[in-house]
TrEMBL record:
Residues 95-197, 202-282 form the O-methyltransferase C-terminal domain. Residues 7-72 form the O-methyltransferase dimerisation domain. The active site is at H206 (proton acceptor). This is O-methyltransferase domain-containing protein. It comes from Daucus carota subsp. sativus. Keywords: Methyltransferase, S-adenosyl-L-methionine, Transferase.
Amino acid sequence: MHKAGLDGYLHPDEIASNLPTKNPEASGMLDRMLRLLTSHSIIKCKLVKKYTSNALLTRAYGLTSISQYLVQARDGPCLVPYHKFNNHKELHNCWYKLKDAILEGGVTFQKAHEGITFFDYLEKDTHLAELLSHAMDGSIATSMAILLQTYRGFEGVKEVVNVGGAHGATLSCIVAMNPHLKGINFDLPHIIKNAPAMPDCQRVLHDWTDEESVKILKKCHEALPDHGKVVIMEMIPTELPENDAIAKNTSQVDIHMMIFTRGGRERTAKEFHMMGRKAGFASSELICRADLYGVIELYKKM
């Protein structure tokens, strides 16, 4: 479907013929799956004459601007790793322990994995860890270009350090749109070793408790020059829950943090301001919101 382009349509028979299958029912099964995706506006469908002018009209399917992000072969951001990670069996197993965690206390992920923490499990399961890194790269890249068109806070900055930057997708976007910057990508050694070279920090705080997040911010405060600032780019829920697509996505991720971590969560702007004060920052400001993310700046001095 990707090769057919945005204007192209393929019949399920044509799609099945390009798959490594001898199943005679593959075409019909694909048709039913694609019809479901069409009902959610992920792909598009139209009726076409399959073989001759006398043939009955049959369904043919094509990509939309949304489904392009589910194509691994395309240039640009891809959300396939993100969906593979969120639907991984080791993560799905956690949902069966959520009731126990609510009634008994404890971390849901650890109840489903014999007491092993999420991050310790990632060290053991390198495939899942790599999938998470690529998932973060793809999901961040889809939103970062939009966010950086709105946020102009890097224009007067000389150097930026991305704390917990994974493979460097966020920093790559920032430096590409702000070529005057010197970018430094900071993460754990087993992650950084797979990061691509950068020309001469990715959502970290939501993994940790308030106390741990304040410790991280204190370290940032110590490392900053007097007129430096910390730029927080996170999903920032509103105080009163809303029901639009962004609010739903943010709340879903917040539940994931509740299940996978001890104390990790998505925080409101008010909560970030309070943590900034506890970490020693003189002031803070919610600068903007764009797509899924908001930007909060913490200033070392007024």
